[in-house]
Structures are given as C-alpha cells and as structure tokens.
Design brief:
The protein is an alpha/beta fold. It has helices spanning 30-33, 44-49, 51-57, 92-103, 123-128, 198-213, 249-252, 258-268, 288-295, 328-341, 362-366, 374-386, 417-433, 443-452, 491-495, 501-514, 516-519, and strands at 24-28, 61-64, 68-69, 81-85, 108-113, 142-143, 146-149, 155-158, 172-175, 180-183, 218-221, 277-280, 304-305, 351-352, 391-395, 523-526, 534-540, 549-555, 562-565, 574-582, 594-597, 602-611. The strands form 6 sheets. The chain has an 8-stranded parallel β-sheet with strand order 13-12-11-5-2-1-15-14. Strands 16-17-18-22-20 form a 5-stranded antiparallel β-sheet. A 3-stranded antiparallel β-sheet has the order 6-10-9, with no helix packed on it. The radius of gyration is 25 Å and the shape is globular. The relative contact order is 0.11. Residues 5-14 have low confidence and may be disordered.
Length: 612
C-alpha cells in the first residue's frame, strides 16, 4: 500500500495560532435541548442547567442556534428583533448568565448571525413596506412586476423574474399596498435584506458589536454567501421546463460584491475583537479556489467556512430529496479532497462536520440502518471526525449516536418548513397528473424524507429514559415529539457505560486535544487502499514535544471482516505501530503486519521508525 503525498510543506501561514484552530464546537438547538420551566420549549435556563454536561463532553465552544425574537415560521431563522431574546427562550439577562456559566468552565459561546434576510414582522420590513417613499424602503429588495398579456388579451402582473425560492414557488411576493414585489430566497415570511444599502450595513455591524460586547466569541454566519445579488436580477436559464420558476442558485450564491461586504465587516467589526472567530455557511461553493477566496488570511474575510461535499453526498440530481447513487467510498474521496485543499500548511483553514440542524442524523445517513450496527457506526464516525484536520463541529445528540425518526412517525406529520414545502410540491405534482388521485406520498419520496429531512435533528434531546418526554420537559406538551427510541438512547443510560457512544466521544475529544499538533495542524496523507472499504490515512505531526505520527484505519463497510496490511515505509525502513484508540472492544494487535478489521471498526495507531 502506498501513501499519497499532498506535496505541501508547512509554511506557518496561519500563525499566530488562534484558539479556534484546535477547537471542537458543540451546536445547540435551543428549542430542543432542555426545557427549564415546563412550557415545552427548550430555553436558555435549560442550557445553563446543563453547563457541566457540555464542559464534560470536552468541547471548547457552543454554537447557539438562533434564540432571537422570532415568529418562528422557520424555527428562528426568521428574526424580528436582532437585539432581544424570544420570550420562549428567556431574556437578555439569561444570555449573560449563560456566557458566564460556560466561561467559568472554559467554554466559549458563538451566536448564529442571520443577516441575509429577516422576518416579515421585523420593524425594518414593516417600515419598508409601508410605502414606496419609506426611509427604509431600500433596506429590502423591491421591484415592479412584469406585465404579461394572456392569449385572451388579459394583462396580468408576473414576478420580476423567474427565480425559484429555496422552498419552492416564486422567489418574489406581491405587496398589495405598494404594488411592487419583494424578494425572498426562502419563505415569503423571510424577505431578503438589500446589502447594497450602506446604512443597512452599518446597522448590522452595530448589532454585531452589541453581541460581541456581551462577551460572545464570534459568529456562525447563516448563508452568508447569499448577501450579494446581481442588481439586474436576470432570468435564470430554463432547466425545468415543467415549471414557471427556475433554480437560480448560481446567480445569487457568491454574488458580485460578497467579498467586498465581508472585508468591510471584518474591518468594521471583527478586527476590533481579535480573540473572536467567524465561520461561514457558504452553500454551492464547491471548489478549493472558491473557498480560499473566503478564508485565506490575507483576504481578511472569514476564518473558515463549512465544506458541504460530505454533507450533500446523498443528494440526487434534482435536489436534496431525490435519490442519489453513492457509496462510502465517495465520502472517503470527498474527505481526501478537502483535507488536501485546506490545511494549516496550505494557508487556508478547514472545518469538518457530519450533522447540523439542517441535516438528518449521520448514523442513519451513513450507516446500514441495522440496530445491531448502530453504535458501531456512531463510534466509527466519531473516530473519523476527531482525527481529521481543522475545526470540528459536533451537533447535539451526535455524541449519543441518535438516529432519525422511526416508521412510527408518518412523513406527513413532519413539521419543518422545508419538508412541508417539498411535500406540498410533490403532492400537487402527483395530483396535477391525475386529478382523481388521493393525496398520498410516493413511497420512494417518503424514503428520502425519512433519510434526509431536517426534522430528525430537531427532536427533543433525550436526557433519560423517563416517560413521556425523556427528561426534556416536565410539562404536558413539548414543542416537538421526542424520538421514540429514547429508552435505549439517552444520556443517563450512557453516562456510566465505558462502552457507550458518549464515553467514546469524550475520550476521542480529549485525545484530539492531547495530539492537537498532529490531528489539528498536522499534514494529511491518505493510504491507497484501492476498492477496499478501508479508509486509511497518516497524520504527520507538526514539530513539537509529545506528538507522534498517527495512522488512522477505518472499515467503512458492514460486511465481512477486512484485512489491512500496515504500511511499512520506504525500502529498508521498519515502523512500529501501537494501537492508541479503537471503536471495538477486544481488539488484538496486528499479526504478520496485518490488521483484521471488523465491520465499522476504526483504529488510531501511533507509529515510529525503529530502524532504517
């Protein structure tokens, strides 16, 4: 077996090092984490009550999903007041307490920044739509419609262009009061802000400073590469002949002035708070060159962005809920691509994640769905994530090996706005072809929803096996039902079990810190394993005391045991391997230079050159 060199030598381009280079960041979805007052909603006081649990996990920061004032049409990503907390979650005073509670335990707080759009109930938008002469009219994107003459001579008004929104239908909504259309990439309740307006930008920067002055450690920036649009709003090419509205992501992602805006934001805000960090959500930014434009230090924009190749590996040709032909080897190849493209040595910092609030559960997506393999898959994915370079993001419940909702929950009852919008399109389309058809969901479509819907990661966190709501709330009705498997997957059950997924995550996060020079900063060299289900890679340490070279070997398959021959180095070299961590109990060492890997087994081995 051979290693593949990435032909990059360390140049210390990212020096001086920052705390976030070695950080593991835990995402909390506040509605679902812990309810402190029995109203059925997770809240800030609930998070505060679990500060010890968070610190014991071994993470360095919490990324808190939106808890700002919101009508909650899109679960908090429709904000009506950026500088206040929604009453369902608590108060501004609770945020201060949370920052302090985490801080005394060595954990920082990062807030979600959602500035591509607001709620249609935000005071800015209410003033903007009050009239065409409103002082804030230009804070949002307004355009007159297009007059179209029908075959019978009737003139009707159509949207300004043919762009499709992210949740289906037109990306424009008509406003009766002013006779114009406003633009929204997402729901009509989420009008897009007009970043061309300098007064708007100054107000956003002031809001960011408000939170940074409170002591937060930075921002995760929601769809930040969508804030700049082409001002002429050209029609998108017709690729879906059966629809009035066409996909236009290529026109509004990574727009013409996005880098100007981010550089301005860096100068006006983030550079004044030097111990903070930014991570951008930048969908459809698929090339290393495009990513580097956001994260190269000399460009002074973002510290890092999320790489979506692994996240979207199972998305089909017509979008997230269409079926794709893929394998775990595709996952392996995508990881290798980005570990080579972004690294400490290359001068552009990477991230790694397998779950967020916008995904389904990784064990369900990347495993085989068999109960007997569930915990194996969860540990295997934990070992993978904690041994790759860059900043690691872990989503609540991932550390327990949580899985998707079961068959006991019909997809028609899923509540997320994205799922509901897709189901409506699907049912409307089926009925249009057969008007007398009952509104039933095609089983193939239902299967994809059960695999990929965002609903799966938004269920209440299972603290124990108590009925009816797994310790999430003492109230009569939670905002969302818990996963019905909480009796076998909960914190209290895993706390004292050294074979549990939770215990394994804690051990691996500590191991990652102990070997940060190798695992966070070190170079990445994949081992060529051909068509084998084994994913193996070396992590070469940056010079420093107490760090050794590491070989990671993972069986991504669920079949029979797989043999892996340990690399022996160059001619005349002899390497000695020692197992440092592993996913399976009862691991024996190598025999005759070979390892026999069980299904979903992962190993971390230290290696040293003993003679040459």
């Amino acid at each position: 077996m051979q290693t593949t060199n990435n032909d990059t030598e360390p140049q210390n381009l990212l020096a001086p090092r920052k705390w976030w280079h070695t950080a593991s960041i835990y995402q909390i979805y506040p509605a679902s984490f812990k309810d402190s007052n029995g109203d059925g909603w997770g809240d800030l006081r609930g998070i505060i009550s679990k500060a010890d649990y968070i610190a014991d996990l071994g993470v360095d920061a919490v990324w808190l999903s939106p808890c700002y004032t919101s009508p909650y049409v899109d679960n908090g990503y429709d904000i009506s007041d950026y500088c206040d907390i929604d009453p369902r979650f608590g108060t501004l005073g609770d945020i201060d307490v949370l920052i302090a509670a985490l801080g005394t335990r060595g954990v920082k707080l990062i807030m979600d920044l959602v500035v591509n759009h607001t709620s249609d109930q935000h005071a800015w938008f209410l003033e903007s739509r009050a009239g065409v002469e409103s002082k804030k009219r230009d804070w949002y994107i307004w355009r007159p419609g297009r007059q179209v003459t029908l075959s019978d001579g009737t003139r009707v008004q159509q949207p300004p262009n043919n762009w499709r929104g992210q949740f289906g239908g037109s990306a424009w909504t008509y406003d009766e009061g002013t006779g114009e259309w406003y633009f929204h990439c997402f729901a009509p309740n989420q009008p897009d802000l007009n970043w061309e307006n300098p007064e708007l930008r100054r107000t956003i920067y002031e809001m960011m400073r408000f939170w940074l002055e409170k002591g937060i450690a930075g921002f995760r920036m929601d769809v930040i590469n969508m804030i700049s649009k082409p001002t002429d709003f050209p029609d998108a090419d017709v690729v879906d002949a059966g629809s009035l509205y066409q996909p236009a992501e290529h026109l509004y992602y990574n727009g013409p002035r996005v880098h100007d805006y981010l550089q301005e934001m860096r100068r006006e805000v983030m550079d004044r708070y030097p111990d903070t960090m930014t991570v951008g959500e930048t969908p459809c930014t698929d090339t290393a060159e495009a990513v580097r434009q956001y994260v190269e230090p000399e460009r002074a924009e973002l510290d890092m962005v999320f790489q979506y190749d692994v996240f979207s590996v199972d998305f089909g040709p017509t979008g997230k809920f269409s079926k794709a032909m893929w394998s775990m080897q595709d996952v392996r190849d995508r990881i290798v691509r980005w570990q080579h493209a972004l690294s400490y040595a290359s001068g552009a910092w990477p991230t790694f994640f397998l779950e967020t609030h916008d995904s389904a559960r990784s064990v369900s997506r990347f495993g085989d769905g068999k109960d007997e393999n569930r915990w194996k898959v969860a540990k295997m994915l934990a070992l993978l994530g904690t041994t790759l370079g860059g900043t690691l993001f872990v989503y609540q419940g991932q550390e327990l090996g949580m899985v998707n909702l079961g068959l006991d929950v019909p997809v028609q009852s899923y509540s997320d706005i994205e799922t509901k919008a897709f189901l409506k399109q699907h049912l409307d389309s089926r009925q249009a072809g057969s008007p007398n058809r009952l509104r039933t969901v095609d089983e193939g479509v239902a299967e994809q929803i059960r695999l990929k819907a965002r609903d799966h990661t938004r269920t209440p966190f299972p603290w124990d096996n108590s009925h009816p709501f797994a310790g999430f709330t003492d109230g009569p009705t939670p905002w969302e039902r818990p996963n019905s498997d909480f009796e076998v997957c909960n914190v209290s059950q895993q706390e004292g079990d050294v074979e549990s997924v939770l215990y394994f995550w804690r051990q691996m996060l500590r191991f990652r810190k102990q070997h940060k020079e190798t695992l966070c900063f070190g170079d990445f060299y994949p081992v060529d394993t051909g068509s084998s289900p084994v994913f193996a890679y070396f992590r070469k340490p940056v010079e420093g005391p107490g760090n050794e070279g590491i070989l990671v070997v993972i069986n991504l398959g669920d079949g029979e045991d797989v043999e892996f021959e340990l690399p022996h180095g160059l001619e005349e070299e002899v390497w000695r391997y020692v197992v440092l961590r592993g996913t399976h109990a009862g691991r024996r060492g190598a025999r005759a230079g070979k390892l026999l890997l069980r299904s979903y087994e992962g190993l971390v081995l230290g290696y040293q050159l003993v003679c040459a």
